Request: fold
Amino acid sequence: MFSSAARGNAHSPKEISEAANARQIHFLKNRMEITSVINSTNTVPSELKRSAVLAEVITDFARLVSPLSLFSSVFRDVPLQGTNKIEVPYFPLDATASTAWNASTGYAAGNTTTSFIEIEVDKRPYQGASFTSDELNRQPFLKSVELMRQKVSKLSYDVWADVLSLVTAANYGAAAFTGPSSSFDSEDMIDLKAAVKEWPEGRRALFIDSDFDANLMKDVGFKPAYAVAADAMIRDGRLYPNIFGFNYITLPTIPSNSENLVGFVVRPEAILFAMSPIQPSPDVIRSGTHYEMVVDPATGITLEYRRFGNSVLDNSQSYVECNYGRAKGLGAALKRIVAA
Reply:
């Protein structure tokens, strides 16, 4: 499919999406056999090596980006055409009082509310690399994977930094906790739980800086394995997946936003996020750009790959990118945690 598109043949966005999904599913089912062949010989065409590298790194990218699903998110693996806007649904709290039964009138059906915000997919960060023809044909497969993993890791952290730039006092109000990491403990976690008592259980998340996470691990309320009814902290050095009813996410790169931000508790309606690839135009394809999509079948999270060559320098410029948009949702659905 992608080779056909590179030759200038027209394909619909749905066909490209289905091809990307099918290729990734095939790779996941046969990963061990494919990688063993590529590692053992240099006769495998560079195009196949590149496809295998992309199939490997999409798993890392999806893992790093998937916590965005704790917000109101839409991950589309169908390229946008004709518009760059996506409707993101969210579900505000229902404030309608319950109705008392009346035998003379029976039941009166109430209304449900599903809200939408239209988000423009206007963010397009990328990471680039340049490879010579010699490197593309002779470079060991594992080295290529590691180089690309570094690129997608930085790309994912930059996406996070941009999305979390929305978390400011102007958007979400006063902080629910203020203090250094050394003072943040299980008692403060209980206070945060009380502060969001009206939020639906199971839809609450806590994002926290690594220093604050480390101090929680020292807390005698969490440190013993028996105290958290699991051995994840001893075995994996982590408190998540959840504590005190919060989905627990540690992020080492939470931006301070010039307000000493170190974390926040949130429900999905606070931030709205949409991701969808943007297919290059036929003219761009005909000019020599090679385009591929790599999809994580479980989530629909999509990484895009573009490549074009320089005949004089005998090298290929490669770029991985993602296209997304984000917007503030409900201000009351997020409470900030700041260091000072």
Notes: The mean pLDDT is 80.
